[in-house]
Design goal:
Helix content is 20%, strand content 31%. Strands 1, 2, 3 and 4 form a four-stranded antiparallel beta sheet that branches. By secondary structure, it is α+β, with helices and mostly antiparallel strands. The radius of gyration is 29 Å and the shape is flat.
Length: 225
């Protein structure tokens, strides 16, 4: 069982999503990507833009100085009870993981004094991110709609040509609702034509019907190289 002890002097900064506005360069880059002719040509620049500008924007952060010690409960039990704010007995534990953020390296973090150090603001560092908002949510609604449509097109394909009404007893198979799942097995029952189609996904969900008549063939899918 791992235990982590934290001590910090910090300031929490919070902003509201409606107070954030994307920079014009980011908006222009996304609009340029969406103006490209093909799905792939749109998706790749959007992916690159997010890689440059970031997927999320922090809404709430903690800044300051902090010290974190992580080790097993048994190892911490070796320390004297009076050493909560001191590093002088850390030599007893050789496996402890210590992470310090903020303050100069020569600030003297021992003998219980580190918890009361007056660290200049210029030496404060980011301690943690509490809340974030997707970067794309800062864009105008029409751009967000185009991006959502682009994402959906990556999961499923709808032929651009109109499909006539299927005559009896033919059936149309549509499993778009499971487009985000990963297929593990496809079962086809056929004779002179496909009589039934069943798809099973990695999470155990099965869609379609097994049907009867004809020969049944099972195609088990494996992870590609």
């Amino acid at each position: 069982m791992k235990i982590r002890y934290d001590a910090d002097t910090s300031l929490r900064v919070q902003v509201l999503p409606e107070d954030l506005v994307p920079v014009p360069e980011f908006v222009a880059a996304i609009e340029k990507a969406l103006d490209r002719p093909t799905r792939f040509e749109k998706f790749q620049p959007v992916y690159n833009d997010l890689n440059r500008w970031g997927d999320v924007m922090p809404l709430e952060i903690e800044m300051g100085t902090s010290l974190s010690l992580t080790d097993t409960k048994d190892n911490f039990a070796q320390l004297p009870a009076t050493t909560t704010n001191s590093l002088s007995h850390l030599s007893i534990i050789t496996t402890a993981n210590m992470i310090r953020k903020g303050a100069a390296s020569n600030m003297g973090w021992g003998d219980a004094a580190w918890a009361n150090l007056d660290v200049p603001v210029t030496e404060w560092r980011l301690i943690g991110v509490i809340a974030v908002v997707p970067t794309l949510s800062l864009l105008a609604n029409d751009i967000q709609t185009q991006l959502a449509d682009l994402h959906d097109e990556r999961l499923s394909y709808v032929p651009p040509l109109a499909v006539d009404e299927m005559p009896w007893p033919c059936k149309r198979y549509d499993d778009v609702k499971n487009a985000s799942r990963t297929i593990s097995k496809v079962v086809v029952r056929s004779g002179n034509h496909i009589a039934a189609l069943s798809v099973t996904y990695l999470d155990g969900v099965t869609s379609g019907t097994g049907g009867d008549g004809g020969n049944e063939q099972t195609f088990a899918l494996t992870e590609g190289l």
